[in-house]
Amino acid sequence: MAVKQIENLLNLLEFFSDRKKPATLADVVAHFGWARSSAFNILTTLVENGYLYEPKARAGFYPSPRWLQLANAIAEGEPISENLRQLLAELAEQTGETIWISASSGLFAVFIEVVESEASVRYAAKAGKRVPIHATASGQALLSQLPEHDLGVLLRKVSFERYSTNTPMSIPEVLKQIEAGRRRGWFASASNYSPDLGGVAVPVMDRDRVYSVTVAGPLYRVRDKSIDHANTIYENINRIYGSGHSCSTLKNIDLPV
Fold it and tell me: pTM value?
């Protein structure tokens, strides 16, 4: 169950992220339609705790550098490795498509780091985005490395919902897609979750944790490049992590030659 006050805070942060300039109480009320007293209480609380400040007197509020300090401190505790960052950057340059690293979080795959394509028509994604783990290439790459018992337990918790034309709608259908991906060596999505968008994903082991690496874009541009993109991912993994890395760390998957 979502907590409304926390949702309001997160929405306020995203509001400032999009706005990129100070906002007055009236601006916040007009944007969200919140009661003036509620908006005042949220802003005042953030000001009193040092998370908002007024760059100019009576010109509106803006997030203070304290947010960045917190984010940096948190990232230091579980930073994304330089190997993964290099993998992202090089895949983005080589494919021209949007690339991201995902990690599992319950019934979701969470985008940990994203490099968006510079193409005008692209897969738009941001770090922190969550997608259903059973219905996406990113998620199925993660699921492929679970022990069979754990995989079954997780899938029994899924509430199947049709997101797009090719969304898997049952446990047998998800298992069939995962098995097909294991035999190919890579996992595919074509309008499984987002209409007219597709991509390929590959699991990668980094510091004893499984992540998935995904190349995605508009279907008309990526559909015929799936094998090439999958091979490019593996080639970069082997070059960055060392030859044979995927072979020695992944389970129950037939790697492309």
Answer: 0.76
Asked whether residue 256 is assigned to any structural domain, the reply reads: no
User: Token digits for 5?
Assistant: 């006050």
pLDDT digits (tens, 9 = 90+) for 165-198: 889 999 999 999 999 999 999 999 988 888 889 8
Side-chain half-sphere CA neighbours of 135 within 13 A: 23
* Confidence class for position 150, pLDDT limits 50, 70, 90: very high
C-alpha–C-alpha distance, residues 81 and 76, integer Å:
11
Say how far apart CA 4 and CA 115 lie, in whole Å: 31
Domain assignment of residue 33, given as a range: 4-73
Boundary residue ending a domain (73, 104, 129): 73
Helix, strand or coil, per DSSP, at residue 124: coil
- Contacts made by residues 166-173, CB under 8 angstroms, sequence distance 24+: 166/190, 166/191, 166/192, 167/135, 167/192, 167/193, 168/134, 168/135, 168/192
In the chain, the N- to C-terminal Cα span, in Å, equals 46
Residue 19's CATH number? 1.10.10.10
Q: Is 68 a domain residue?
A: yes
Give the CA-trace dihedral at 127, 130, 132, 138, to 10 degrees: 10
